[in-house]
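Supplementary Text 2. Reproducibility record for the structural model of the 118-residue chain.

All settings were left at their defaults, and a single model was retained for analysis rather than an ensemble. We include the record here because the model underlies the residue-level annotations in Supplementary Table 4.
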Amino acid sequence: MNRTHSNCAQLPLSIHQYVDARQELQIKLAVIRQEGLIEHKDNLDMAFFDKIPLIYLVVGAIFLGLAPFFPEPHLVEKTRMLINGTLTKPVDIFDLIMHATLPVLLIIKLARIALTSN
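Retained model, structure tokens:
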């Protein structure tokens, strides 16, 4: 009983320390942004994506999106299964996600390039 009471007594103090630390961090980030040392948060979210060379995404999307080349690419097969409603096995769902990841990333990268160039 005594230990539970002690933990419950510490909870408000912990919450107060968390709120203080969060406010302090927000103040520091505002100062850093004013000094121009860091971009706005919205730009940081996709900064990692801008660093990926386009050629890697193109080559990866072609090879992974069209593999295996014969008799039929998995991406085409799994998309057809998705449209027909027969994509029910977890391995098939994983296969669709795996083969579609790089083509989707390539589309996002190209759209991002088009939007930021204007």
